[in-house]
Amino acid sequence: MKKINAFHLKLIAIIAMLINHIGHTFEFEWNPPFWEFIYLVIGLLTFPIMAYLLVEGFFYSRNRWKYAGRLFLFGLLSMIPFFYLFEFYWPFFNPVNNIMFTLMFGIFMMMICEKVSQPILQAIILIAFIFVTILSDWNVFGIPLIFAFYKNHGKPEQIRKIIVSFCIAMFLLSIPENWDASGLDQVFSSLGILGVIPLLENYNGQRGYCPAWVKWGFYAFYPLHISILWLVRFLIFKY
């Protein structure tokens, strides 16, 4: 019997995200290989869960534009703190840097694909949205993962194939030039995405505990925890 509902999945996703972001926040100050491996592996649980629930929400939402609007709002609120926390060393400011924008564009992509049935046109749409979000969180993998879940919605037996395929792609694309400890962490941490398989395969399709404060709390957690982590690092290390 499947016992995991959407509330459980969201809770797992934000805990995994927090651990991953704590690791990245202080990676220039303290980043031993074992700890780096842990936060990279755990962090890979977050986006597949978000992408899967995004597709679920897309099919069951009463107003997709409002759904996208909420993501846009919290993407805007996260934009500046995300930059200062993760991209402070970049020579330019990227306005679509965080995961909320990746998810928002995922909704737009699905809305367009729903109107277009030809596979070749859907492939063109997919490529176009990959380019739009290539500088966002999860870059080349975010939109394709959303697309894969969208095309296989209602087919839970396909989850394993989708995740394994993305794991292989991430593993191959992360092979480093220098096989030092950090490089090995980057490569083998890609296996962490496999951990999402039993979670999604045991999802029962129910929303679970979802009062208004929980619904908005999951959105607000993203900009809030990023802002707090940046503030803590700034107070201690001045950047």
List the helices and strands and how they pair.
Layout: H1 6-25, H2 33-43, H3 46-60, H4 64-86, H5 99-115, H6 119-132, H7 139-151, H8 159-173, H9 181-188, H10 196-201, H11 212-237
Helix pairs in contact: 1-2, 1-3, 1-11, 2-9, 3-5, 3-7, 4-5, 4-11, 5-6, 5-7, 6-7, 7-8
Report on the architecture of this protein.
The chain is mainly alpha-helical and 239 residues long. The protein has one domain (6-237). Helix content is 70%, strand content 0%. It has 11 helices and no strands. The chain has helices at residues 6-25, 33-43, 46-60, 64-86, 99-115, 119-132, 139-151, 159-173, 181-188, 196-201, 212-237. The termini are far apart. The mean pLDDT is 95.
Oligomeric status = single chain
Strand share of the residues? under 5%
Q: On the 0-100 scale, what is the average pLDDT? A: 95
Name the helix and strand elements from N-terminus to C-terminus, one letter apiece.
HHHHHHHHHHH
SS field, number of helical segments: 11
Gross morphology = globular
What is the domain total for the residues? 1
* Biggest β-sheet strands, sense, barrel: none
| Cα end-to-end separation | 49 Å
Question: Which segments are poorly predicted (pLDDT under 50) over 5 or more consecutive residues?
Answer: none
